[in-house]
Amino acid sequence: MNTEDEIHLWQHCHHCNESPITGVRYECQDCPAGPDIDLCSTCFELYKQGKISHPQEKTHFSEDTLHKFLSRRGELAKPIDSWLDIPMPEGNDPQVENGFVVRPEFCFAGKSVFGGHGFVVNTSKGLIFLTALHVLDEVIKKSNIDASVENNQYTGKELPQVINTVNLYDVMEDKWMFYDIGLCGEMMVLPDARVGEIEPISYRDISAFTLKESINIRAGTLAMNCPDIGEPIWLVSKMSDRSRSREAVVVDKTAHSFVFRYESNEPLPKYCSGAPLLNKNGQVVAINVGGGFFKNQRFGHANHVGNIRQHLGLN
Ligand SMILES: [Zn+2]
Ligand SMILES: [Zn+2]
What we know:
Layout: E1 6-8, E2 21-22, E3 25-28, E4 38-40, H1 41-48, E5 69-72, E6 75-76, E7 101-108, E8 111-114, E9 118-123, E10 126-131, H2 137-142, H3 158-162, E11 163-170, E12 180-187, E13 207-211, E14 232-236, E15 245-253, E16 258-262, E17 276-278, E18 284-294, E19 297-304, H4 305-312
Antiparallel strand pairs: 1-2, 1-6, 3-4, 3-5, 7-8, 7-9, 7-11, 9-10, 10-13, 11-12, 12-13, 14-15, 14-17, 15-16, 16-19, 17-18, 18-19
The structure holds zinc ion (ZN) (2 copies).
One zinc ion (ZN) is lined by residues 13, 15-16, 18, 39-40, 42-43.
């Protein structure tokens, strides 16, 4: 296989912004999972020569030593050409109130980090705060926990032991860091949740927290079923044009993956992993996990409601 034919649909180069990355991709093993960990082969050579900086954001790890990178092979573009052919259905954007989508702040061992997005759903087991597991990757790495798919010994109890508190902030407010909605309760033990699956497989990328009754949040509801290929869904967050959702169409669905194509290529908020995806009835159908470009179209993938219900033990 010629490496030039390979693409990495779900990763972009954080230096030159190549999206998708073609050829060999270099993935940092020291930085937390997120949009700033991958380099294309050209930029990786420049990094080794000290000509470009990594990590990009000073808020992340900032040791002077070089970070460790692993080279990754991509996949041939052919199987995903069909994702471009599904037509975009008609649909009306859902109404999104303040206090539904939040930014979580995880406090642990005297430190605190903001991790992506999240939201609350009202279930038969009470109110539950949901987000992706990989938004906790900085907590995981700094706590020397191995929650990767390779580790069969991980029980799901390790993270709840190190996380002291989780503050939630209303993402729809302009200065969201000043709009503290309240605290989560305990992190729930989800023995099958893991980070590090090969994208777009994302059925284990979930974390869940109980909620205090007094919290000032607007809870959503989980849909019973996952939408079919061709149905519309909406990613909910605060967009740069101040709208609150972005329409997409489901283009692929398996027990382990859920892929959709956005109607527009407008940028999404940078850290929108963990944000909810809604169906046309406004019910939650998935937790947003990743995104990328293919042939100038923006795609996303998510952990769908069938998997969410299984992890939480809901019928
Ligand atoms: Zn590059
Ligand atoms: Zn790094």
